[in-house]
Amino acid sequence: MNRDSKHHQYSIKLLDNMDIVFRQMVSNHKDLLSATNMLLDSYETLLSVDDHSLCNSIDDEQPFLLKLIDNLHKELKTFQPKTIDNRDCLKTIHEKISNLASEIDIILRDGDQIDNLCDEQLSPDTIPIESNLVINSVSPSPTSPLKTLDDYQQESSSSSSSSAADINLNIMTKLHRFELYQNRLQFSKCNLCNNGILPLKTYYKCTECDYILDQNCYHKKRIIWSILACKPIPKQKLSLNSNVIVLMKKCFQQIEQRGKEHRRLYNTMNNNDQEACKLLDKYLDSSNNNNNNNSTIAISKLNMNTICAMVINILKRLDDSIIPSQHWNDFAKLSGIIIMDCDYLYTPPSPELIERIAVRRRMISTQGKNARGVSPNVDPELPPPWFEKSSFEHAQKLFKTYRVIQLIGLNLVLNFTHGLVPLLVTGNSKTISKLFVRYLSTTIHVTNWFQHDPFDKKSKAYRSLRMVRGMHQNVSNKMNTEAGLIEDGQTVLWIPQYGMCHAQFSFVGMMTVFPKQFGFHNFTEKDFHAMFHFWRVIGYCLGTDDQYNLCSGNDQETFELCRQIYFDEWLPVIRSASEKTGVEMSKGICIAMSHVNPNLNYNALMRYCSPFLELNPFDYRLETRRERCLYRVYIFLFNRACKSRMVNRLMARAADIRLKRAIANRKFHEENLKTCYPNISYENDRCPFDVNFNYTTAIETYHGNKNK
């Protein structure tokens, strides 16, 4: 077997990773020495498997390597970074660990069976050119080690000769190879010059967009990129809420596939061995109740020890000035693919909760598409039995301080066919001026809901909800009578319960998933509960059945459902950008509503949102000085200014004044938009018919009832 050519790509990644460790050891010797010792511990664990099937290949080398590890531990223990000859000592230790890593790398893949698996894992077709750091790309993922546990478990139960030691070796070898394969995923590409970038070198980072650049680009700042931690190591301090943590999250996503395996991994690492075994036993036993418990426990221990050494200990090597050590445990609060920065609110959900919400979400997206949007089972005339007046009124009080940034959700929902086509067929969103009237009317409707009693038949909220419910029913009946929506070969309804749930999400979902990024720094658990209850009531009044209501569960369930809806349903559709008309209409909405709020700009807003929404920021270029200024205003406003309740109150008051001025000058704004944008039109090219009915905007009702 030609090991030099076959395993060169493995060894070079392992050695380069050690380069990063030793490059930073002089200034950060405490944490990095500790992490290096832990790395050696993980190698020692890998070499300590008692399996007779490998005796022929490692009997002679294993004791020697274990002894070498022990000697390296002693050298690291006596290492003094501030001595004169520290660099020579470092170089010697570096060479020894590099040689050790290469030898271990070769031993663990010796043999025909392992060679075949190695070839399969690192075939050219499976190695992506770009990494997940380029937001638009979808790179093929390697097989997760935990994915293979069930397979090994089934082999254990079916074959009497298969022992726990056999499974131990297979799992540990698989985990080690998976660690090395992760390094292959970490290729990036400069978004400006489109040149490829290799990992683990000194690169340049764009000071404007936070993307890695090569030396041919401008706006550059020198930076060292650590591949295993997926984390830049600049000299200045960075807070936990910075983009660094967003990048750190990528490492976790690639080590384990997002979802229950990822959270189960953290549950395993944050509990003792016995609890970890119970967790993984329960997971493995779900598919086969007759599994061998001893093998399961052995697997779970190996998984915990190896993964801990691979991930958590590597993270702990990072400079304490970047991420203080007291915050290391906060990484366990990272959910499957997002960071919830309301730590006191959003604790990691249990695997059972995640699975239960996933089942409910799938039910909404299947059964909900065949249930009419205005349910006959809902009586909006009377409050539901679960109505909490105190929570509803508390949410209305919050409206005086916080004006939810609803426009981002209303823009993104247009990427969906079920959200876009109903707007096209009515003709009420055909031009920029009509978009102004429609979304000004929507703003008035929402304002009425927050300011009045929805169950008082004389209130503006009651009349507003009745009007919106009637419009939904008229459009739905007309569209479903003329033609149904064909989806995956099946006919589903227009404006169904599924659409009503996603309409709720467009109003409340973004503030739920990304509260601090949209300025809700001071929101408490009570505030979120009140806001969820408010939108549950509004959904009920609009005819949404409780089983399809976005906010019908407890607060934790609502958080998790919103998270899954965005990342599992919205984000893939938004990234695909299949609805070009929807994207153009979103731009038109921002143009129209800038006559209500002059600080609104589509490119600046989406550029600000793109990092945490996991969109490509280069899709939203800031071409004018005004756009660049507004982008910086958004950063300051949402990340700093909104931490003050007084600022939030002033902003809410200013929004109320602007709304009243826009209503008073409606005719002027309409004519101005018609003059400035005469050639922009959004035609109905999806349905063979239009839905025409007498559309009464909330603006007329506002003028008719402003004194009531």
From TrEMBL:
One of its GO terms (molecular function) is oxidoreductase activity. It comes from the Eukaryota. Keywords: Metal-binding, Zinc. It holds the Pfam family MPAB_Lcp_cat. Residues 175-230 form the Phorbol-ester/DAG-type domain. This is Uncharacterized protein LOC113794053. It comes from Dermatophagoides pteronyssinus.
